[in-house]
Amino acid sequence: MQHNFEPDVSQLEKNILPENWEWIRCSKQAKMARYKSDPVCYFKEFIPKSQLEVIKSKFRGSRCEIWVEQAKVAMNAGFDVPEILAYGILQNKHHYLITASGPDGAASDYLIKKPDNNETKRQQWIKAFGEYIGQMHKAGIVHGDLRAGNILMEPSSPPHFVMIDIERNSHHKIVPLSLVRKNLVQLIKRISFKDFTAKDRVLFFKHYNQSYNRFDKKDQKKLAIEVINLVKKQNLWGGNQNI
To answer: I need a labelling partner for 184 at 20 to 30 A (CA). Which of 18, 28, 166, 204 fits?
Structure first.
């Protein structure tokens, strides 16, 4: 039987932690908590950035409503997202969402170089991750904040990926080149060469293109140069940002 979240939501809205819940650090545009009992799940309150966002949401939907809509798009295209357990509107007019837990780790935990990551498996996971992002773009899905930390991963063989933080996702018949570049920049600018080498990046890009099957060799090279230049322009080439 599913847990009744209504009393918990009422308390969480008032910044009171119900039994078996704990707060999670997140951006200023949200409030998050984790339910530690069975089933493990996550509460997210979407806090508008400004009054302008509130006005815009009346026409295009709130971030929560977009999350739910984009979850359907992703699942219809064969991609996994955390199961939606509940969503609605709080007394303060903010929207909230409760989702089931996905895999324990993020893709970034397994793709970067570190002592407890088996190198042979890591290379296989990089290939699979490149193929996953290629398939995502082939399906017309653009992740609004595509960093490896926003893709959960089960380190199985083959690995199982689950996309999270999808409230800024968009769906297109053909992904505009500007958004292809944007997603690749989001991935590359947040990780250092110490954690993810040039060889790793080439391997990812090779399997991304094989999976996407959109660009010929000339356009692949052009795309890679454009992405590198955009990252350099932001002074984040080889940066050590949160991935």
So the answer is: 28
